[in-house]
Design goal:
- Among the domains are: about 80 residues, Membrane-bound Lytic Murein Transglycosylase D, Chain A (Roll), CATH 3.10.350; about 80 residues, Roll (Membrane-bound Lytic Murein Transglycosylase D, Chain A); about 60 residues, no CATH class.
- The protein is about 25% helix and about 25% strand.
- It is built from 17 helices and 30 strands.
- The strands form nine sheets. Strands 15, 16, 20, 27, 28, 29 and 30 form a seven-stranded mixed sheet that branches. Strands 8-11-12-13 form a four-stranded mixed sheet. A four-stranded mixed sheet has the order 14-17-18-19.
- A hairpin with a 2-residue loop joins strand 2 and strand 3.
């Protein structure tokens, strides 16, 4: 236990924070943190250039061309933007690969490349689409006129035309989508070029009546972009004067009451001061005398402030100017109430076995000294989507001395909590697999993981030069990716290795099992089958709809995104196994 919470003892001297480690999601659940964004692009954005078609298994497939942008992955395009099923992601990847023969590696999309994305992927794969038959569909409404109900939409960076229509109008079917495009053009006659949208451009979308012509209006599916409008710096962007209710909510979760009714009576040597709490809110802590007053217009004079803060009166004043941010006002109050603030731009990290749990929030602090009790870290953040952090993770953090709180913004636009899928109540269980410690057996386990049939030790003919042939002893021989792969458990030598690889039809993997580490052995094996995975700390977000780095778990190892496979030599704590199970990750441990 001492090793698990040792970081808490270092908090007393404000030395607790470790540098956040990078993560780059390759696909799947956007599980690795993306590399730093490229330089901001110009306002003009390339979109689809009309409906096109390509051949797939003898049939014409309609789709749209999508220009790859920074941080794009097939997961983001297919699952997050188009709302396709996560369970069928691998099938979609194969389909996109067949429709895009120039796509060499679906895990790494090249910025600027053009992808052909089918409009109806499920229909192409033969999966029954949830589309009403023509007999049951309502009669199509006329294209809305200038006087009809419409909504305005401002184009954001990364927007795609079909994505906007699906998310804003709740449209799913291909026929409905094409019909909505015609309605869109009728509503925006001044716009001639629909191949390009401009960031900040406002377009008119069909309102409730117009959207019904394509499909019954449905609530837009929460997207990564919409749910991340509330970042970890949101409190810096809003004023305290207009968000007193939110201030009260933050103070409440910290055990402080905000009073805005009645009077605060403060006896001074010169007389008694009566402070209207409606104009000067008073924050009261659970301890006697633990209180502070918020001067929202900086109207309390320096002389009176000194008297109010004197030892006898004991009413600290936090003065904020008009337009001051909610973040700064709360930070000032916490300081006056005895809280010790921690840097909000650095995460708090709990190292538990092989997992590093990293937490960030809008406000991070330690409560006033509790007379020798175990210190705690309080982390508070704002959100527009409830139920983001699983209860079991909150309980885990609490056991490690961290109280993690999310406060839902009091806004009518707040997203509803996602409805769990059928059967989700059953707790996901992770079965960690173990690879053999014997390196020869580990090589065989790796090949079995990739479904590779191989030959054991034998001899492979090598032409060293004209008239000289050698039968080289090799340990494993198999075919993968159109090439024969030769694996030798000892060094073959430069002459033999070069001769083997002449012509490019044979790939040679030389590993000295007696000298190579298991980690390096796995790296060489991954490279032999074309995987670019590297051993590093792989970080996974607790919730993809949350602000980046709010709560992430990091595990050193290899992450193979295409197989949702994590290869690690670290121990996963029992309390956190459920996290990886819910991410649909297979975890294989090697030593």
């Amino acid at each position: 236990m001492e090793s698990e919470i040792s970081f808490l003892h270092r908090l007393a001297t404000i030395i607790l924070l470790s540098t956040a480690l990078g993560i780059s999601p390759a696909s799947g659940s956007a599980q690795e943190q993306p590399a730093k964004p490229a330089q901001e692009e110009p306002a003009q954005m390339q979109l689809r250039r009309g409906v096109k078609s390509r051949e797939y298994q003898g049939k014409n497939v309609e789709g749209e061309e999508r220009v790859v942008r920074p941080r794009d992955t097939l997961w983001r395009i297919l699952i997050q933007e188009r709302g396709l099923s996560e369970k069928r992601f691998k099938r979609y990847v194969l389909l996109v690969g067949a429709l895009n023969p120039n796509l060499k590696n679906p895990d790494v999309l090249q910025i600027g490349d053009t992808l052909f994305i089918p409009v109806q992927a499920d229909e192409v794969l033969g999966i029954k689409a949830a589309i009403e038959s023509a007999a049951t569909k309502p009669a199509a409404a006329k294209v809305p006129t200038e006087g009809g109900a419409t909504n305005s939409y401002q184009v954001k960076a990364g927007d795609q035309l079909y994505q906007i229509l699906r998310e804003q109008l709740g449209i799913k079917g291909r026929a409905e989508l094409l019909k909505a495009v015609e309605q869109l053009k009728a509503l925006n006659p001044a716009k001639k070029n629909w191949d390009t949208l401009l960031v900040g451009e406002t377009i008119r979308l069909p309102g409730a009546a117009g959207a019904a012509a394509a499909q019954a209006v449905a609530l837009p599916k929460p997207t990564e972009e919409s749910s991340r409008t509330v970042g970890l710096d949101y409190g810096h962007k809003i004023t305290v004067q207009e968000n007193l209710d939110l201030l009260a909510s933050v103070m409440k979760v910290l055990g402080q009451d905000t009073t805005r009714e009645g009077e605060e009576v403060v006896p001074l040597r010169e007389g008694t001061v009566h402070i209207d709490r409606g104009s000067y809110p008073v924050i009261q802590g659970p301890k006697k005398g633990q209180r502070a007053v918020l001067d929202m217009q900086s109207k309390i004079s320096p002389a009176l402030r000194t008297k109010l803060e004197a030892e006898g009166a004991g009413l600290p004043v936090v003065s904020v100017k008009k337009g001051a941010s909610l973040h700064d006002a709360i930070t000032g109050l916490l300081s006056k109430l005895g809280f010790q603030s921690l840097p909000s731009n650095q995460p708090v990290v709990i190292q538990d076995g092989g997992v590093a749990v990293q937490v960030k929030g809008e406000w991070m602090m330690m409560p006033p000294d509790e007379s020798g009790t175990m210190p705690q870290v309080l982390v508070v953040s704002l959100t527009d989507a409830p139920g983001q952090t699983p209860d079991y993770l909150r309980d885990y953090l609490s056991l490690k001395g961290m109280n993690f709180k999310e406060i839902l913004l009091p806004s009518p636009t707040s997203l509803a909590a996602p409805t769990p899928p059928a059967g989700a109540a059953k707790t996901a269980q992770l079965k960690i697999e173990n690879w053999p410690t014997d390196k020869t057996a580990l090589v065989d386990a790796f090949l079995a993981e990739y479904g590779i049939n191989f030959s054991g030790a034998g001899y492979f003919p090598v032409v060293l030069r004209d008239g000289i042939r050698m039968d080289a002893k090799v340990d494993r021989l198999f075919e993968y990716g159109g090439k024969r792969v030769v694996v030798s458990f000892k060094l073959l030598g430069e002459e033999v290795g070069t001769a083997l690889q002449q012509g490019g039809s044979v790939r040679v993997v030389e590993v000295d099992l007696a000298a190579i580490s298991t980690r390096e052995l796995i790296a060489r094996l991954l490279a032999s089958v074309g995987e670019s995975a590297a051993y590093r700390e792989q970080r996974f977000q607790a919730n993809e709809r949350a602000a980046k780095d709010k709560l992430t778990l990091g595990v050193p190892g290899f992450y193979v995104a295409q197989k949702s496979l994590l290869l690690t030599d670290r121990q996963i704590p029992k309390e956190l196994e459920r996290f990886f199970a819910e991410k649909n990750l297979r975890v294989v441990r090697f030593q």
